[in-house]
Amino acid sequence: MMHRGIALHRIGAMILRYWYLLMSSWPRLAELLYWPALQVITWGFLQIYIAQNAGFFARAGGTLIGAVILWDILFRGQLGFSISFLEEMWARNLGNLMMSPLKPIEFLLALMVMSLIRLAIGVVPMTGLALFLFHFNFYGLGLPLIAFFCNLIFTSWSVGIFVSGLVLRNGLGAESIVWTLMFALMPLACIYYPVSVLPHWLQYVAWSLPPTYVFEGMRSLLIDGVFRGDLMLAALAINAVLLVASFAAFLALLRSARLHGSLLGGGE
């Protein structure tokens, strides 16, 4: 027998289901809270920077476009890594991979290569558009571009490895971390404004992040014509520590997933 009309009890049941799902996943709750705060903080600092340097932008052409492209390298590098990992989770194939002769380090290295492939597909057309529409030659940065790229991709891999471990341990209920964690770093990485815009106490936090050195180095190159090798070396040293720590964290989370039986489940 077909029931017509709208049944409030069925609607209420579905709302209750989604409520329980939301309350059982702290990453989903965190996502709801920090998106508005993130937007206010990021563009608020940018507004302060523009207000303080109204005449400065006449000689700072290209810094915002360059920052957007470098940010895209950072974000797409992490996302390309994590999406390949999530595809195994979505297909519930991760348990099969972990029971095969494939080693975890080999799995992670394969994901790194895939992140580069995905990154190239997205960024190369983007740089072409920047040249065609805004006459900004991203590759005109020259050899310093290699240092910028390497440091950003190392950071993206560190974040990608860590968040993949969290999803592996907590299941797809933690999937939102993959999409949102990098954006949480945006205000502190000083993508569109210098570190000096931040409150003094927050500058120490910003300088603990490798991308901050890259974006400061980009502005120094475009505005002053000076390549800051010291900034790139500092970023490389921090990245080395982050990569080792992320590998260790992933292996620890993998062992925990095996012990708790979440490796084969991978559900919400």
Q: Mind explaining what this structure looks like?
A:
The protein is mostly helical. It has 12 helices and no strands. Helix 3 (63-90) runs antiparallel to helix 7 and helix 6 (144-170) packs across helix 7. The protein is globular, with a radius of gyration of 21 Å.
Shape, per Cα inertia axes: globular
**In total, how many beta strands?**
0
Spatial separation of the terminal alpha carbons: 33 Å
Strand content: under 5%
Instruction: Output the structural class.
Output: mainly alpha
Taken in chain order, the helices and strands follow as: HHHHHHHHHHHH
Rg over CA atoms, rounded to whole Å, is: 21 Å
List the domain count as a whole number: 1
Please, what is the oligomeric state? Answer: single chain
User: Mean of residue pLDDT?
Assistant: 81
Number of helices: 12
Unreliable parts? none
> Biggest sheet: strands, sense, closure?
none
Summarize this structure as a short list of keywords or feature phrases:
about 270 residues; mainly alpha; 12 helices
Describe the secondary structure blueprint for this structure.
Blueprint: H1 8-23, H2 26-52, H3 63-90, H4 94-98, H5 104-134, H6 144-170, H7 176-184, H8 186-189, H9 200-206, H10 210-224, H11 229-260, H12 262-265
Helix pairs in contact: 2-7, 3-5, 3-6, 3-7, 3-10, 6-7, 6-10, 6-11, 10-11
Give a brief description.
With 268 residues, the protein is mainly alpha-helical. The chain has helices spanning 8-23, 26-52, 63-90, 94-98, 104-134, 144-170, 176-184, 186-189, 200-206, 210-224, 229-260, 262-265. The two termini are 33 Å apart.
